[in-house]
Amino acid sequence: MMQEAAFVYSEKQLAYKFSEDHPFNHLRLALTYDLLRHIGAVNDKSVIKPRVASDEEIALVHDSSYIEAVKAGGHGTLSRGIANNYGLGTEDTPVFKNMHEAAALLVGGTLTAVDLVMEGKAGHALNLGGGLHHGFRGKASGFCIYNDSAIAIEYMKRHYGARVLYVDTDAHHGDGVQFTFYDDPDVCTLSVHETGRYLFPGTGDVYEKGSGEGFGFAVNVPIDAFTEDASFLENYEKALEETAAFFKPDVILTQNGADAHYYDPLTHLSITMEAYREIPRAAHRVAHKYCGGKWIGVGGGGYDMWRVVPRAWAMIWLEMTNQTELLQKPLPKSWVNMWESGSPVPLPHTWSDPENMYPYIPRRAEITEKNSKVLDKALYHIRNEQKNKPS
């Protein structure tokens, strides 16, 4: 019997850790899982252990020489010069012990989620340990060693013959996934992100639309710094609906970075928890409208791991399982008491953010208008194709 949704998780996923002071810290997985456990939103039936991806599966996207370099790095036998050739040993993506094994488990978690959905064992599946969207064929980048989303998309194409819509709401552009499938007409990538004028990786311009047979199947909505909820959601919801209607996917894979929030230390957007409540709601609706509900979710960025990530990521699971009524209650005191001693900031007590969390943004109207024009440019090709399609 198909279960409504599957939550792919294991404490072993926390082994993907560069250092104690690195901003990417998968302790946020434990914080999120524990929050869901304390509100009774997960149980033994819904939690599925991730498998480890094989070298052959990782090689669906990554060069074998790169995979061997990652293994050598994790075993302490990779020279600094060779490491630099592969984007390893940098400030962003340092080498750490057993890094191949840790990264392969994150990839395997996303593949576990894929198989559950594509084989009809679960309607939706969530692997928050995944979402490492900056990894390239032969290079690590931006905290990402293996690109689990790209591997999962190629896996779905080969094993299930699927047309895949990839939707990325991380504040950083999903460059690794986009360029892996830039000329592929069976994969459509949609990324709503902070403009690359201010932020890594500097890509994701509105005019990046794909190439060759894939032209028109890369959709980028680069929004301005300090964008707030209303403008973000207008751009995201319109882009998602129109892109899905145009592409008609068999399955949707969403990357759910939580780093567009105002509190995030690495970005410049002004999103609150109200937007993170709506992001999965729109994805859920579109998944049922266009692809029989097939929806796979992964994590991504999110560097305020105490106040933001657990709430934002828990909301995805609550939406997947139709338990959003739990958002009307305060956060459980048992969860706050369990974690607050380790937190450098006071933990929230509600699902929502406080009013007047940040000062009034004087350029609000200008930013909103600018984002609206960007959206029109981003969707111009799709709208033109739809208008000229024979009735």
Task: Describe this protein's structure.
Helix 8 runs parallel beside helix 12. 39% of the residues lie in helices and 11% in strands. The protein has helices at 27-38, 55-58, 64-74, 80-85, 99-118, 148-160, 175-180, 229-247, 273-290, 309-320, 333-339, 364-378, 380-388; strands at 3-8, 47-48, 122-127, 164-168, 187-194, 218-223, 251-255, 295-298. The protein has an 8-stranded parallel beta sheet, sandwiched between helices. The longest helix is centred in the N-terminal third of the chain and has 20 residues, at 99-118. The chain is built from 13 helices and 8 strands. It starts with a strand and ends with a helix.
Amino- and carboxy-terminal Cα gap? 40 Å
Overall pLDDT: 97
Radius of gyration: 20 Å
Unreliable parts: none
User: Helix tally?
Assistant: 13
Record the strand order, biggest sheet.
2-1-3-8-7-4-5-6
| H/E element order | EHEHHHHEHEHEEHEHEHHHH
SS-based class: alpha/beta
Q: Tell me about the biggest sheet?
A: 8 strands, parallel
| Helix percentage | 25-40%
Annotation, overall tally of beta strands:
8
- Specify the overall morphology: globular
Question: Main attributes?
Answer:
391 residues; alpha/beta; 39% helix; 11% strand; acetoin catabolism; His_deacetylse_dom_sf; His_deacetylse_dom; Acetoin utilization protein AcuC; Ureohydrolase_dom_sf
